[in-house]
Specification:
The structure holds two protein chains of two kinds.
Chain A lengths: L2 H15 L2 H29 L1 H4 L3 H12 L8 H17 L1 H10 L3 H7 L3 H5 L5 H33 L6 H4 L2 H28 L3 H8 L3 H12 L7 H25 L2 H7 L2
Chain B lengths: L2 E12 L2 E12 L3 E5 L6 H8 L7 E6 L2 E2 L4 H7 E4 L11 H9 L6 H11 L15 H13 L5 E5 L7 H16 L3 E6 L2 H7 L2 E6 L1 E6 L1 H8 L3 E6 L4 H9 L3 E7 L2 E6 L2 H14 L4 E6 L4 H16 L1
Parallel strand pairs in B: 3-8, 3-9, 6-7, 7-8
Antiparallel strand pairs in B: 1-2, 1-4, 4-5, 9-10, 11-13, 11-14, 12-13
The chains are: A mainly alpha, B alpha/beta.
Chain lengths: 269, 309
């Protein structure tokens, strides 16, 4: 990592994790999201029942899933639904970095302005892209690590729920690509959008309203799969990952263009 | 003497508001230039343009030959900027704050930070969070931050503004030391005493440059040197005698004091004293009238306003 970016990342960690509230939020929010997913699946499977679910829109999603992955045909209806829900988890996990980004990245530039540290910072030889990427990475890296930790907790939860025999259907290539390729790419995108929002407005709430847009594509992926409009196969996930790499690159370029030093320094009060 | 800072018709407009207009100025290497002007005169805007933070609308500036609007990163290697209200990360210690800024430069960050913490008298408090620091300590820390990479040129924006007299004195002494080290300092202030004390030259500024010169020359340019003669008793016989002297340009009476304007201050003074003594005047003291920089500044700003009107 570039020396200056590393410097920014370390400073951001010190200021963020030095604050107990921020530290707790970053740790607790992902754990709550994971627990919520496990409880929801447990309740749906035990109280709604597979016979009811098959008649809902989720039934179409599950059938499409089974058609795409024929090895699931050997499972009972209940197990098919469970695997179907478990397989959505990596996409659901994408909400973690996005929510952390909305809470923290949106504050990153505004905070510098409010603390009056931005002008001295801009008087150093730091380049705009280094500053923006450093700020995004500082939040993206811990949220990525905690997301992966949550994936581990989720798998442990599956076992605890008595569905360990389904893990071989869940832990396929799609799961790993989603987790180790899509999650980092979406995280970076979410944090860059958060930093862009932070550099465009002088009010953290307005920045959060802008950054929350990043949630929509994730909800769209989840919704499309759950309702049976699309199944993200291995090929589709690879294509999506490549698209995300390109999008991330362009978003960084846009962030650099939108980061108007003069406007931030002169007009923000 | 080489020129360190040079501006060429430097202009900055914010929509319809002209903050700085056609500023042409030169600052020599090792010089401390005082940039004097009332609030809202465009001092901070000028400093921001010179420090490459904002770009001029028209014209350009060179700092050690570097265009401030084009080679910003190169410029930032050689300048130090002290902003009007310097901010810090309150949750980090003084050392952590300085290290963060130092690591953006190609320097031995640790040793430079330790050097300036000691130099600024903050060594004992190096591990304390900056949030607990007084305003004066923060200002010293801010000075350390802008010196950490040993810049040749310093832009100091109101360095003593809002400080108590003791802290302000400490900061002034530090600036004086920096000047003696041979750094070029562009000092924006509206503290006239400070400017007179610290600066080699003073630029009076109000959107545009009003005048630039040494404090001494400014005084001479605006005010004829005057002598004040204090007498035990002033009578009309003495005043008439003084007025009749051909080298006396003007005489003003104020209680026991006569303020006299002479054609040649140094040459005519002994003759003036002799004349008063010969007419029976008992002189208690003779001294030169001192014009403060404040008088100069107010006169210049008033003249400028009248010209614009």
């Amino acid at each position: 990592m570039n020396r200056r970016i590393k410097n920014i990342v370390i400073k951001e960690w010190k200021t963020t994790f030095g604050n107990i509230n921020s530290g707790l939020f970053i740790t607790l929010l992902p754990l709550i999201i994971t627990a919520q997913a496990l409880v929801l699946i447990y309740l749906v499977m035990n109280f709604a029942g597979a016979d009811v679910l098959i008649k809902t829109i989720l039934g179409k999603g599950m059938e499409n899933w089974v058609n795409t992955f024929p090895e699931m045909a050997e499972l009972s209806l209940v197990d098919r639904f469970q695997v179907f829900f478990f397989a959505q988890f990596p996409f659901y996990l994408l909400l973690i970095p996005v929510m952390i980004a909305v809470s923290f990245a949106t504050f990153s530039i505004i905070e510098e302005k409010q603390e009056r540290t931005l002008e001295p910072l801009l008087a150093t030889p730091v380049k705009t892209w280094e500053l923006l990427l450093g700020k995004a990475l500082a939040r993206a890296i811990p949220s990525l690590l905690i997301t992966w930790l949550c994936a581990g907790i989720f798998l442990a939860g599956i076992t605890w729920m008595g569905s360990a025999h389904l893990l071989k259907f869940v832990l396929n290539a799609q799961w790993f690509i989603s987790l180790f390729l899509l999650v980092p790419l979406f995280s970076l995108l979410a944090f860059m959008l958060g930093v862009i929002a932070s550099s465009r407005v002088n009010d953290p709430k307005a920045a959060q309203n802008i950054a929350v847009i990043a949630i929509f594509p994730i909800l769209a992926i989840l919704g499309l799969q759950l309702m049976g409009f699309a199944v993200f196969t291995l090929t589709k996930l690879f294509v999506l990952s490549i698209v995300m790499v390109i999008v991330n690159f362009f978003v960084l370029q846009i962030a650099i263009k939108l980061f108007q030093r003069e406007s931030i320094v002169v007009r923000w009060r | 003497m080489s020129v360190m800072i040079e501006t060429f018709n430097l202009t900055k407009k914010f929509n319809n508001l002209t903050a700085v207009e056609d500023l042409c100025i030169q600052v020599n290497k090792g010089e401390i230039l005082g940039f004097l002007g009332p609030n809202g005169a465009g001092k901070t805007t000028t400093i921001r343009m010179l420090a490459g933070i904002i770009a001029p609308t028209k014209g350009y500036a060179l700092v050690k030959g570097i265009r401030t609007d084009e080679e910003v990163e190169k410029l930032h290697e050689i300048i130090g900027l002290l902003t009007e209200t310097p901010g810090f990360y309150g949750r980090l210690s003084a050392r952590e704050n300085l290290l963060y800024f130092a690591r953006f430069y190609d320097i031995d960050a640790d040793s430079q930070v330790d050097k300036y913490l000691q130099k600024m008298g903050l060594w004992e408090r190096r591990n304390d969070k900056v949030g607990t620091f007084s305003k004066g300590m923060k200002q010293r820390l801010a000075l350390a931050r802008c010196l950490i990479h040993e810049p040749e040129v310093l832009f100091l924006d109101e360095p003593t503004s809002g400080l108590d007299p003791e802290s302000a004195k400490e900061v002034r002494e530090l600036i004086m030391k920096l000047g003696k080290e041979g750094r070029t300092i562009f000092l924006s202030t509206h503290n006239l005493e400070e400017a007179e004390l610290l600066c080699d030259r003073i630029a009076v500024f109000r959107t545009g440059l009003v005048v630039i010169d040494t404090p001494q020359n400014l005084k001479q340019r605006l005010f004829q040197r005057q002598v004040i003669v204090e007498l035990e008793k002033v009578d009309q016989k003495i005043i008439s005698a003084v007025k009749s002297l051909d080298f006396v340009l003007d005489v003003k009476e104020d209680g026991r004091q006569l303020t006299i304007e002479l054609r040649d201050f140094d040459k005519n003074r002994p003759e003036l004293v002799r004349c008063i003594v010969e007419r029976g005047g008992n002189i208690t003291s003779v001294f030169e009238k001192r014009h403060s920089l404040e008088e100069i500044y107010l006169t210049l700003v008033k003249e400028e306003e009248e010209m614009k009107a």
